[in-house]
Write a sequence for this structure.
């Protein structure tokens, strides 16, 4: 039964990724939990595109302008403690 559920989940994820690719032209995955970010609620496009992952609360920052594919600039996560490091100036980019 688990096998069937996993197959359905994989199918739905594949469909979701295809939908994002059609709409956005690319898919950004959460660096922590690998969830697709493009169709989640919070996305602000200022100097960088910033996503907030609804699954694991990770904030990530991307650039869509530097390369043919989006590049992950930075991310932080409450669980991994990187948010604290970033507040201390650990992340120098941006
Ligand atoms: Zn996540």
């Amino acid at each position: 039964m688990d096998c069937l559920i996993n197959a359905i989940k994989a199918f739905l994820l594949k469909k979701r990724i295809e939908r994002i690719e059609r709409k956005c032209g690319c898919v950004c995955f959460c660096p922590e939990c690998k969830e697709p970010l493009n169709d989640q609620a919070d996305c602000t496009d200022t100097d960088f595109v910033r996503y907030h992952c609804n699954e694991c609360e990770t904030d990530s920052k991307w650039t869509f302008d530097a390369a043919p594919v989006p590049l992950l600039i930075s991310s932080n996560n409450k669980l991994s403690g990187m948010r604290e490091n970033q507040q201390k100036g650990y992340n120098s980019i941006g």
Notes: Residues 30, 32-33, 35, 53, 55-56, 58 surround zinc ion (CB under 6 Å). The chain has two helices and four strands.
